[in-house]
Specification:
The chain is of the alpha/beta class and 331 residues long. The chain has twelve helices and nine strands. Helix 1 packs across helix 5 and helix 5 (154-168) crosses helix 11. It is globular and about 55 Å long.
Length: 331
Amino acid sequence: MTSATTRPASDYPPGGDAFRHRHLIGIAQLTPWEISYVLDAAEQWVDMNRSGAAKHDDRLAGLTIINAFFENSTRTLLSFEIAGKRLGADVVNMHAAQSSVKKGETLIDTAMTLNAMRADAMVIRHGSSGAVQLIADKVDCPVLNAGDGRHEHPTQALLDALTIRRRLGRVEGLTIAICGDVLHSRVARSNILALTLLGNEVRIVAPPTLTPPAMDRMHVTTFTDMDEGLMDADVVMMLRLQNERMDGAYLPSAREYHALYGLTPKRLEKAKPEAIVMHPGPMNRGVEIDSGIADHPTRSTITEQVEMGVAVRMACLDILTRRQRGVAGWN
């Protein structure tokens, strides 16, 4: 048997061994072949969503999915809701403003309350790192992490990997520059984990104040000069400034940030001619990215990332509920 570190990403075991986890808390728990398995599973949903056939799939009929978002979100919540409904599930959304946590209830009490409702799967988003794992430890159903603090956002990394693979024909052996507010970005962390695991050269391009410490431990190269970091890159992944998470003087001004780290047409010329531009959204146009690049018909993948998000989340919901549904080979 090939070890987890040497097995090719395209060579995954049959049945339930292809994805052995009850929950999806982070990319850090996955092997290359498990990532590949999710991406391959998502491919069918891309095609079915585009044809309209996915609207008639009811494999999750009779199952109830709770989207418990303790932190505000628009695109991630809608994406998970659409994913669940397209698979025939009953989807219930719990918004942060409606949560009893606002009334003083502890997270553990909330987890126990959610568990008592006997949902078949939960999608959790929370502002505190580790909160999703705490809830997963207390409930009897699969839990998907939709973002927890600065920790991880695994489905975003998976949809980004799928976008890259569909655009460039592969998601290994590439040079990928992740640029911007890396310090506060769980998207960056999950992408670093996924893309290095799949055998890419990953660069971090950010001001020193927005670069996390000890990045060399994550097998990336750090740059403070934007032009140098973008040189010959295959993928340029921009991140927004997360001002809501900043409690100090990280930046002098948005104008100066754009001058030094904003993605402009001239700056993009440093990357390869066929390089694609990504952004997880929401964007700060004119700050980290120019509108002309964000809306570019061939270079930008931003709307495609949103589309891939629905397909990836459909795949994750399907895979994580197979044991409950008694799917052959997953017991």
